[in-house]
Structure formats: C-alpha cells, structure tokens
Amino acid sequence: MAKKSGGGGCLVLVLVVGLLAFGYYKWQHGSSSAPPEGVDTGGGSGRYVALGDSYTSSPRTGRQAGTPAGCDRSDDNYPHLVAAKLKPAQFADVSCSGATTANLTGSQKTGNGTNPPQLDAVTAETTLVTVGIGGNDVGFFSYASGCATTDQNASPCRDRLTAGGRDQLAERIDATAPKIGAVLDRIHEQAPKAKVVVVGYPTVLPEGAGCWPSLPFGAGDIEYFRGALGKLNKMLEDQADTHRAGYADTATPGKGHDVCSASDKRWVEGLLPASPAAPLHPNARGEQGMADAVLAVLKLP
Fold first, then answer.
1. Most exposed of 63, 83, 127, 249 (fewest Cβ within 10 Å)?
2. The total number of structural domains that make up the chain
3. Nearest in space to 271 (alpha carbons), one of 201, 222, 215
4. DSSP character for 194?
5. Which domain, by its residues, includes 289?
6. Do 161 and 183 have their domain in common?
7. pLDDT score recorded for residue 299
C-alpha cells in the first residue's frame, strides 16, 4: 500500500507540473491564461517597452511625448494608459508613426528627427513588451488614399488590387507574417524574462456598404478592405500563437465603434476627424479601448 501511495503522489506531482507547464504554454501562445510566475511588471517594478506604428503612437490625440517629434507620439496613447495602470519602474514608448517591421531593427527618418531602432529599447531587464506593427508593411493607407469615388457602387481599389486573379493585399499580408515572427523571436532573445503581447488593429470599417459619401469609398472597396484587415489581424494572432506571445484583440471590442459610427461612439476617425486624431486613426477613446484589451490579456482590470 505504501508503494501504491507513493506512486500516486508521483502521479499527482507529474500532473501538477504538467498543468503548470500547460498554463505557461497557453499564455505564451496567445491565450488569456495567467502570465507565467516570476515575471513582474508594475507596482514600481519591471520595465515596460512599447513598440509600434501610428496606431500605437496615436498622432494628435494628446500632447507630444518623447522624441523625435516626427514620430507623432501622444501622451494618451495605449502604451501610456497601460503604463499608468501598471506603474512599472521603467517605461519606454518608442513607437513611431509610419513605422514598419524594418524600423524595429533599423532607424527611421521622420519629417522631424530620426527614431533609433525601436528594438534598442528592449533590454535584458525588460519584463513586458507590447508591439503593434504590420499595417505599414502591407501598405493599407497608401492603397486606401486612391480609393475615393463619386460612385458608391464602384470598387476601384478592389478591382485594381485583385486584377489578373491576384490579391495584392493578401500577398503582402502573407509576406509580412515571417517578419512579425522574426521580430517576436528577436524580442525573446533580447528580453528572455519579458511577457510579449502583440496588439491587433481595431475595427476601422463597418459591416455592410459603409457610409458614403462621409467615407467616399464604394461598397466593394469597403468589403475588400474590411476583409483584408481581418486577414491582417488573423495573421498577427497566428504569429503571436507560434512565437510565444499573447495577443490583444482590439477588433472585437471595437465593433460598432468604426469610422461610420456616431462621433461620440467611434474609436477610429474618418477622413475628416471629428475628434483630435489623424485621419483613419484611433482617437483617444480608441486608444483607451486598445489599452483595455492589453490589460485584459495581462489579467488586470
């Protein structure tokens, strides 16, 4: 009986260790499981580094934060809101408008100063990294700038970008995937103690045909770009899942807060912003929504 009891104890120990390992694996692979123990950011400890593009830097929503001024980084963007909640010992927001994955490892020239490689801020002491990047690699905004039409049933961008049986946006999303994976691997190498959270893009376009002429894109282009944004977020989530990172879904809570929603509801402004923000970018309300999504992944209220 003593032997049997000892074997049972070993089995329990194996199960407990296995469950703990599974919980760690699930966190690192993008679920909302509790973060691994032994890594603390907040309450006056740890180092939080925020990497990203203009959806992270949040141009025009608040006061200028940090340098260079050309990064259009606001003091009420989601990294600042997350940091205010966590209260880490150190906080570095190095996000920059116009950034691509190349600007995480290489410097970025702006209209007013040069931003050093964003990954330079990620040190061995870093305990939390959020990264919101990829949209500029795909080129959404450069493509969208030529989509305005006087015919609400037209789809000039979809027709051009899918001509000849190719889907150029889908191809660019696929090409960006390994770049995101490489960035996440690099973060883990530089900051082996850090929790890493990939932050997705919020809902920009509504279901249905849109709100022409307030947003002067035809129904076909609205559908096309909405689908492409969904593919981009799915790619980001998949890369987080396979490269030991959490994923903050900002699109789901952002539904109903798109550019066509009421001005007091929307998270993302239209071509003519009604609240301080860059066109087709999150306003302060949207940045708060994104911060809430990150805090939810970190299991904080």
1. 63
2. 2
3. 215
4. -
5. 36-297
6. yes
7. 85
